[in-house]
Amino acid sequence: MTEINKDIDQRIKELNFNNYKPRVIAVSKTFPLDKIKPLIEIGHKDFGENRVQEAIEKWSSIKNDSIKLHLIGKLQTNKVKFAVKLFDFIHSVDNEKLAAKISEEQKKVDRNIKIFIQVNLGDENQKSGVNPKLIDSLYKYCTQNLDLDVIGTMCLPPFGEDPEPYFRKLCEINKNLNLNELSMGMSNDYLTALKYRSTYLRIGSKIFGQRD
Description:
Strand order of the largest sheet: 7-6-5-4-3-2-1-8
Radius of gyration: 17 Å
Shape: globular
Largest sheet: 8 strands, parallel
């Protein structure tokens, strides 16, 4: 973690960006608590999970107000009622039905989840995310019809391609929506994401090692 923070600080210095400090989400999916606790003990606060059930089993006993949990994987509507009780951020909202369910369930438990809209910039059928042409209407529906707290957008660039054009495009979309937060950049491309002022970096294997 120390090395990652050093690399981030060095890159920001090279870019000559002032007053910019992204948050690192330690993507702890599939890793057990004994791998995660050392980070909690040194004061790391942001952790990312892909699956709701795994997160419930892992985090329910140790989650507190200082730990912020981020759901970065696809969310099924039948899991929303569980997700809104545990997660502070959902990075993968990509349709009206899901957005409406989140709105409905968070009112029941009096919580205000911070939302990212996931955008499918590579037009990949196997990936979640709203088509860029539909982002405006989904954003308006989330904020005007449902009063959801949409703070930014998220993307997963196509595997094996240069991520930079996708980061640039998402940055443009964010500016057009007048949003402040960007969820982009993973273990292999987070230094590139810094060029476009990503505010949330989702880093897993670089922190915890390769998954089985």
